[in-house]
Amino acid sequence: MSVRLQPELRNQLIQFGIGDWNACYHCGTCTAICPLSEKGFLFPRNKIRLMQMGVKDELETSVEPWLCYYCGDCTKSCPRDANPGELMMSLRRYLTSKYDWTGLSRKFYTSGVWELGFILVFAALVVIAFLFLLPAYGFKFTTELTAQGGVQVNAFAPWEYIEIFDWSMAAVVALLLISNILRMYYKIIWKDGKTTVSIWTHIREFWLLIYNFVVQPRFSKCEDKNYWLSHWFLMSGYTIMFIVIVVYLEWFQTDEILPFWHPQRTLGYYATFGLLFGLFVAIIGRIRKKRIKFQFSHVSDWLFLIMLTLTVITGILIHIFRINGMAWATYISYIAHMAILVPMILIEVPFSKWSHLAYRPFAVYFQQLKKHAVPRKSNQ
Amino acid sequence: MKKAGSTGVFIYNPPIAIPYPFDITEITCYLSSFPNVVRIWQYPDFPWSEKNLVKMITEHQLERLVIVGVLCGTVKTLFSKAMTLAGKNPRHVYLASFDEYGIELTKDLDRAKSLLAHMITDIPMEVNPAGIQPITQPATLVIGGGIAGIQAALEIAYSNNTVYLVEKSGTIGGKMATFDKTFPTLDCAACILTPKMVEVNQHPFINLMSYAEVQDINGSPGNYTVKILKKARKVNVQTCIGCGTCAEKCPAQEPSEFDFGTTMRKAIYIPFPQAVPNKYMIDAASCIYIKNGKCRACVKACPVPDCINLDEQDATVDINVGNIIVATGYKPFNASRMAEFGYGKFPNVLTSLEFERLLNASGPTGGNIHLRSQDKKGNWIFTADTPKPHRIAIIHCVGSRDKNYNKYCSRVCCMYSLKFSHLVMEKLSDAEIFEYFIDMRSFGKGYEEFYERIKSEEVEIIRGKTAKIEEKDGKLFIRGEDILKNDLIENVVDMVILSVGLEPSEDTAKLSAMMGIPISEGGWFNELSYDIEPTATIRGGIHLAGTCQGPKDIPDSVAQGSAAAAKVIRSILKGTVSQEHDFIPQEKIKSYLAEIEK
Questions:
Q1: How far is A38 from chain B (nearest CA, A)?
Q2: pLDDT > 90? residue B123
Q3: Is any Cβ of chain A less than 8 angstroms from the Cβ of B487?
């Protein structure tokens, strides 16, 4: 099989954040020191080779970038300052853009104008909807409080309507993400053309996907155990929030002020704490730049962190203003919350950094499938 | 050779300039003896305008102009412009500026004449006006008694000139004395080196100062005063007969410096059996008498009266030398800095220099390869009682080519590692050897052939440096990537040898400040010109030899030792320490001129 070399690939990859593509002299230190690199799935060194030579097809079909959890040991021990850890991160950005069939992911990663424009347009749409669309259906901004002294949120933003919107947005995002995962599956499992995986293996190994999504065991294999914890908090907080808002909004968005120990509030507080803790570690880390994984920040990394932080802060504000009966403040923070949340979900989940919530566990699953793959029967 | 075209000479001596050191008529006479000199002008009828100059050039059909005199550079532009206007090449205006070429006194007439001859006949010349100091001291100081220092000292001494050889440790021989074999010829290192060491000791023109250090250097090129600290050996070198009775009785033990800590020596000791001078010495840090004031076992045992003087103190001596050769060598990279390899933690992770001692027939195990063990006091030493290793891994580039440690390639590690493989195969025929390398640098004469030879000896040569060594039940686990096979290899071995790189020796920075010689990136002494003056420094009369200038192997060190000696001998013969090309003597110019005449 011939291999097509496309040296222009590395120029494209520079936009995704790789540094000096030519620094590596292939000593293999990074692969040897990596706690996650294993037989048959070697990285980062041979991915650097593929990048240097421009073997685009093989890079695009490789699962290894997703198996790296960026502990930074390779970058620390690299004798050439080639920064293999950040290279793997850049490859993940690149692969995200390749799995995406709309081409938007590539735009968002390589052009700040596109990303910012997208955010502003959707934020404006949300604001317009709240100011003009919902009032047209008879919902209003009212300063009248409930008997408990809380704000009537549902009078201004009825949960039935918001939930319909949540479901439709979830459907759009899920559709995009699932189609991207199918493309990922096609590239990783099918495109190499040499092996085949039985259906039974697909079913038998499926538990790995769930297990890796919930526990993230590979993350804890990296040297840095503390980071696993803070990331896990972030992830669990987000997941709880997601489920509560999309599925149980009726139960979550009430006008009644429930007692402190009611599960509605405790769950909400846990999720908020988890998100804040994870975000705090990540933001402080990226500012202090002590951990190697935080030393090199792409624009997309910062944008994601800032938007998620703003979402959480506006969410907290809604809660505080509502139970204290501050009607206008509640409405404004509600609109701001939605104006940040909607574009963030639309950009990050299917097209950008957040898509790793699906790609990571799927990659472990696909890796397991590849291990059980058998050589394909030749048709020729 | 091409004959220079018709030349016009302007003697420029305006009254404002510095007066001429000698009679102008003599210069004029000398100038007119050249056949291509068409016209000579002197200051009074100096053509101050371009117009006049152009007229002169065209009238006499001048191809070249030479301006002779003091401060003549000030009028060059005028002359160049005139040449252009006259349709000639403006570059053919030459300056014979007396002040620039150091011609100041009446006795410099010969020098002035050579300068004029060069300019008028267009003989290419490289002259530099910098001061030429007369050498006052014919003696030479060599700092460092390794192979480069020994070679330089012998070369100079055999030209019948005095050499002071100052060595920091108790014996000369340097690192080469610790080696078993040299690559690629597999010569016995001691067999080549020890005769030279003995020669140094016996040469009447070499004043060997072992166990001494240079403390201060003063003076100017050609006349340096060097203060040397002679550390107290506490044993009289003249009367000691080297019998060893004292060491037998001595109760104190210390790790041996010569064996890189892999054997124990007494407080009174000889660095190694073939040491030069082959006399005992006392290490003050470990001597019980010096620490507690009680013992004197060696004094009681010594058969020579008054040979051991435990109260001897350090002394300084001043010597006067004209030239200095620096040959301070290198120190091995400290492998414990790379914690991932576990050197200093796992006993059977060795550095290459420790392994050299293990291989050496005069080493701790008599040249048999045994695992390292711990003695009663907890020192990791080599003895012949432990089992022999079966699987040995050699890791290249430890501390070299690494931005976290040293960026440069240490040049010798690849080849000595290959040499190790060969020597292990020779001594343990059933051993399995794994060489982990990044790039194989076998650049010298016979080196690539040596590499091919080792490859054919069933040594596993793996491309890919490892990253981590772990120990379990006395076995060493190595994880590495085989880059050519694109595979991960997890290897279990008995012994790991770290091929450590070279670093400048500790005193390099101190010496550089003392002598005023810059240090280059990496900490090595900076030579004057990497390509054409590899032994000279910016300081006149101070030369470099061996690895103190940069990592190099034995042949290169020896070559540089000889080259530095050649510079010194030239300086002694000429009586100057100038680095520059000297003027060609008058007779040479005359014969050259006669040749053109034909």
A1: 7
A2: no
A3: yes
C-beta separation of B143 from B561 below 8 A: no
Asked if A79 and B467 come within 8 Å (Cβ–Cβ), the reply is no
Topology adopted by domain B139-228+317-329+505-579: FAD/NAD(P)-binding domain (3.50.50)
Residue pair B201/B276 in contact by the 8 Å Cβ criterion: yes
Mean residue pLDDT of chain A comes to 88
- The whole-number pLDDT of residue B193 equals 95
- pLDDT value at position B308? 93
Q: Is residue B130 classed exposed, middle or buried when 0-12, 13-18 and 19+ CB atoms within 10 A define those classes?
A: exposed
DSSP letter string over B116-143? HHHHHHT-------S--PBP----EEEE
- High-pLDDT (> 90) share of chain B, %: 59
| Range B444-463 average pLDDT | 93
pLDDT of B1? 41
ipTM of the complex: 0.84
Q: What is the largest CA-CA distance in chain A?
A: 78
Contact A29 B404 (CB under 8 A): no
Q: Round to whole Å and give the CA distance between A340 and A311.
A: 6
Q: Which residues of A touch B404 (CB under 8 A)?
A: 77, 79
In chain A, domain spans? 9-99, 104-371
Interchain CB contact of A77 with B (< 8 Å): yes
**Intervals of CATH 3.40.50 along chain B:** 7-130+583-597
Residue B396 C-alpha, separation from nearest chain A C-alpha, in angstroms: 10
* Residue A42 pLDDT class (50, 70, 90 cuts): very high
Q: Which CATH class is domain B7-130+583-597?
A: alpha beta
Whether the pLDDT of residue A159 is over 90: the answer is no
Mutate to test the interface with B, among A24, A26, A27 (most CBs of B within 10 A): A27
Cα angle, residue B451 at apex, residues B450 and B454 outer, rounded to 5°: 85
The three-class DSSP label of residue B436 is: strand
Contacts of B485 in chain A (CB under 8 A): none
CB contacts, 8 Å: B481 with chain A: 28, 31-32, 42, 45
Domain B332-502 has CATH 3.40.50.300: no
Residues in chain B with CB shorter than 8 Å from the CB of A24 are: none
Chain centroid offset of residue A366 CA = 18
Average pLDDT on A301-319 reads 93
Among the partner residues A26, A77, A81, nearest to B483 by beta-carbon distance? A26
In angstroms, rounded to a whole number, what is the distance separating the alpha carbons of residues B162 and A249? 99
What residue spans in chain B does CATH classification 3.50.50.60 cover?
A: 139-228+317-329+505-579, 332-502
Share of chain A above pLDDT 70, in %: 98
Is the pLDDT assigned to residue B18 strictly greater than 70? Answer: no
| CB proximity under 8 Å: B 322-361 to A | 340
Contact residues, chain A, for B463 at CB < 8 Å: 28
Confidence class for position B61, pLDDT limits 50, 70, 90: confident
